[in-house]
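Good morning C.,

I know you're traveling, so I'll keep this short. The sequence:
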Amino acid sequence: MKQGLIFILLFLSLLQAEAQDHEAFISCNYENLTFRDFCDDVFRQTGIKIFFRDDKVKELRINIKSDRISVSDALKRALAGSGYETITWHDNILVVTNLKLVDILPDYSQVRLTVPTTEAAGPSMTESEERYITGRRPGSTQTITVGRRGALTGKTRAKVLGRVLDSETGEPMSFVTIYIVETKSGTLTDAKGFFTLMLPQGNYNAQVEFLGYEKEKFVLEVLSDGNLTVSMKSATIQLKEVVVSTERQANIRAKEPGLDQLSVKSVKTLPMMMGERDIIKVSGTLPGIVSAGEGRQGLNVRGGGSDQNAFYLNKIQIYNTSHLFGFFPAFNSDIIKDFSIYKGHVPAQFGGRLASVFNITTLQGNKKRLAAHGSISPIAGSLTVEGPVKKDTSSFLLSGRSSYSDWLLKRVNDTTISSSKANFNDVSGGLNWDVQKTQISVFGYHSYDHFSLSDLNSYNYSNNGGSLIIGHVFTNSLRGELSLVASQYQFSTIDKQQINSAYQHSYKLNQYEVNALFKHSLSDKNSLDYGAGVVLYNLDRGNVLPYGEESLKKEVMLGTDKGIESSAFISDSYDILPWINLTFGLRYTLFTPTGPATVYTYSEGAPKDPRYIEDTLSFGSNEPICWYHEPDIRAALNIETDRNGSVKLAFNQMHQNIFMLSTTTSIAPNTQWKLADYHLLPPKSNQVSFGIFRTIPSQSLETSAELFYKQTKNYPEFKDGADFLNNPHVETSVLQGDQKAYGLELYLKRSRRKLEGWISYTYSRSFIKVDGEHAWERINNGDPYPSNYDIPHSFNLVLNYFLTRRVVFSSIFTYQSGKPITYPESVFYMNGSPYLDYSKRNAYQIPDYMRADFSLTIEGNLRKEKLVHSSLSFNVYNATGRMNPYSVYFKTENGVIKSYQYSVIGVPIFTITWLGKFGNYESD
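The tokens, ready to paste straight into the viewer:
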């Protein structure tokens, strides 16, 4: 064991040493270029400064054409025959003739000097003089020069393109605040760490701030258009409490309506089920978002269904976001960098869902050094390794997780459970290159689940995906991004509960995407986002086959679905006044279901039923079946009322071309997805929201209140008795109606204090109306009824209390109104047999849901230099042991109908999780 550990550490150290051996390269296409312009271009591409006497090299002209050449070779060619040579000094280069620099101090001996007293030295300086002298000391404030002197011609403002990186890892930092003191304005970095400033020529005091990092201050000397890079260091650990004010950052950020963001650091100490950190479940504690509960996967956002949310992992669409029926996340939260949730104003670049977009971005990998961290919980273990391929230029990230939960099932005193099996695993990996103006990212993802309930049934389901993202900076004003994405979701089930009706079924969904996105800064007040994309859907609903020789199940061919979704968008963000910003976007989508397909038409005035088939339409491979044109309008108005407050208004129009076929309220492993087709129209929604946002810097508080109202057309609802497993003609089991949802969301958050956390409360209602001319076109007799996701009240309290720097106590309290349900109200008898008469759809509610969780996290010692840092997390899930209802069902026993409440977790669950990583506490 010891020899193996030594070998691994030696191997990792060799990789790190190899990654540190590097040379700076440039790309050049110079023709009759001056030596000064050549040096400026080298600095722009590499950050290496070249010092020279201008009068000595003014006659030199550079002619070099090469896509990749080292700086040293380029200088040799530029200075060939001139009599000059180069010397490296403090990572910079001097152009000299026969000059040697002294880089080693001579030997010296100590001499004790007597320092005269202040009185002997003369009168002391005044406070103003002291500040003046201190401010003029060399190195007290760094100056960063952007552009070339005299290059700003014909323009009043220069375009400054900057990037912010983590100094320890080389990771781009998103949502960092850049503030210019003189103009009292600023901006934020995007997901790639880029920002753009429009400034007149001159000197400016710049401040770069981000919570958890040291503030960077420097003088920005703007000569013309140019680039700069800012590196930020993690804040030093303080022994006493430090209060960081987010006043300016909150003021500049101008938060979009309905936008929420979570960082892994903010939730790393929160109590989780079985100790597995689940950032998606934690998002259910935010206003307007409701978690489906134990044993269920998916989220309900502002009265919408689980299938109305889009989840993207590095642009890969994930159709199943959990392991083991919703108990654990389907990807390792340790690799998540940014997690943004759009539920109010959805940017025009996103489409295809009615309720929300969950945009997840992973870490790129440490570009500075090799790092590893992992965890062990009662049910799973994980390991993440990251490091440079070439230092400061390229990196890799590899993460894996696997379960070993069968030992828990075997200890349950139930033969059905103890003979069951459950396991899962997931793997993620990425390579990233950051070469001059181009960023390339390759990412792959795989997750797999297997569950068998004794010998009754089994489930296997998996997600697979890959993405290639190429970003390029064309000019200081224009950046572009091209992405190629493929994703797949598939499952197979075997049901053996009844031998004579046992069956097996497989399903597969493939999705392929090509997207182009451009960000164009027109001026300091106006910026454009625009682009286009194509999505190809290929769904194989599979065949339902009999399983076993005794099964009498009939074979059912459910068929296939294909479709092409093409889209183009443009969005303009314009500062009408310094305190008013308007964002207006238009997205236009063309969706085309394609063959091969056989489509039935039905008699006019008759229900869609096989008995009333009138004609059959046949479509060949890739032949268009029909066309749906879907314009989406997106608008948001941000009004800053004062330094600490703002008012937001938003209008959001969305369309959805793919939805679930399910009679349950959550996404199950065997849930089928279906495309809009000849009969089923794409659902569409309009949402209006209004919000008030305010910060209280002195108390580190952030508050908000939002109202929303949403109307949806063509909302798909299943008919009574619908069976999507045995019916290939979906249109005979689905009706489309109208949905409306409205609500109020309140939020209070406290940050960077000994006691921090947030409180959220949501009041929302969601109703559906399916009405038509004929009785068979109605549900609930055409009367409105609560949707499956109508949860009027939701309250969440999340707290972190830092007992010491190393000990954190955390808790989550959750309360939700019970979900709607349809109850039997009476019994009637025919030929002596009892039959149930049910209430109107969703006329009742199951009991309310309430849960309290606690955790205690103890960090290891905080020594700066150490090989491995570890921590222990003690979790209690459902500490009160409340029997929260998963569902309520009814059984007839001895001629009497009895109701039963089914609870998944009805006892407290205690777990201990160990987390470890190479390096000290602050290292990532």
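Safe travels,
E.
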